[in-house]
Amino acid sequence: MSGESYGALLDAVRGVHWPARRLVTSAATGAHASRRRGTSAEFSEYRAYRQGDDPRRLDWRLLARSDRAWVRLATDRTTLATTILLDASASMAFPVTTRAKWRQAQNVAVGLAAVAHGDGDPVGIVAPDDRTAGGARVLPPRTRRGVVSEIAHVVDDADPDGIDPLAPMLAGIRSRRIAIITDLLGDADALLAAAHVHVASGGELTLVHVVARDELEPPRRTLLAADPENPAIQRLLIEGARREYERRFSEWRAIEARRWRSAGAVYALVVDDEPTAHAVRRIVEPFTGAEAAP
Q1: Quick check: is 102 in a domain?
Q2: Where in 228-288 does DSSP place strands (E)?
Q3: Is the model more confident about 9 or about 229?
Q4: Sheet of strand 204-211: strand arrangement
Q5: Is 166 helix (H, G, I), strand (E, B) or coil?
Q6: Do 109 and 181 fall within a single domain?
Q7: Which of 247, 292, 242, 241 is nearest to 266 (CA)?
Q8: Do 283 and 274 touch, CB atoms closer than 8 A?
Q9: Number of domains present in the structure of the chain
Q10: Are residue 60 and residue 94 in the same domain, yes or no?
């Protein structure tokens, strides 16, 4: 897959916004409501004039009518640095013949990057890569033209063939907003603990839980299932075992959803056959069922 192949996806998510869930503290002008009160056109409230206030913020018409000095406050708009953490463990390369789960994860990563960049936010990516000295490809958040293409090249170059833990990588990210794209089949407990720390420090976190349709609905035939991260572990999947697997997999997904939401994260389940643009909209747009399954 090349960067050019994302063209249709980028067209489909153009104009989609990813609003901050909280007021943001930043000096840069952007798309999100800021904690700062300033002189933007977005009026917020009046406050009595205090010594030291900028006289240019006085409402002179109100002063003329009431003979009292009032300062006109406005909500400034600012940027929100965003980093995407992409799971590249071997379990993401499922099914083995199509790698549909991995392709969906790649597409979602690029789609989210495009939406953040479209809002004027600095955006970057972290992807595990044993071929690099630090064990990961890191592209720090940037607003420059072409950053989405750079992220697409990092995504295309990643290969889901390792067992790299994500928790240490999450702990090292300094962006206020982080989106994790994973199947949660690695160091899920440690990753959740690191997520708690990020949210508790005032950060935002979105967990994109990618699953394959074949994981939700295994083929209706007897087959030998192998653990993708440890091929030596194999199990014969017959009808009775299949029903038990489906029940446990459903319960596990529900538990993970509750755990991540309780940690203060947005949780979104994305199946590999869902149109990526639709999935991206569910993930980023508030109050539209983003946390529900497709």
Answers
A1: yes
A2: 230-237, 266-271
A3: 9
A4: 136-142, 123-128, 82-86, 177-182, 204-211, 266-271
A5: coil
A6: yes
A7: 292
A8: no
A9: 2
A10: no
Integer Cα distance of 201 and 73 in angstroms = 28
Token duo for residue 217: 């609905």
272-284 residue pLDDT tens: 999 999 999 999 9
Closest CA to 206 of 266, 280, 262, 259: 266
Q: Using an 8 Å Cβ cutoff, are 281 and 268 in contact?
A: no
- What domain range includes position 67? 29-78
* CATH assignment at residue 253: 3.40.50.410
Beta bridge partners of 205: 178
**The pair of three-digit structure tokens given for residue 232, joined into one six-digit string:** 């030596």
Question: Do 212 and 74 share a structural domain?
Answer: no
Residue 290 lies in a domain: no
* 18 contacts 112 by C-beta, under 8 angstroms: yes
pLDDT digits (tens, 9 = 90+) for 156-189: 999 998 888 999 999 999 999 999 999 999 999 9
CB 209 within 8 A of CB 101: no
The residue assigned the tokens 């950053």 is 147
Of all helices (H) and strands (E), which one includes residue 106?
Answer: helix 100-118
C-alpha 107, offset from chain centre: 12
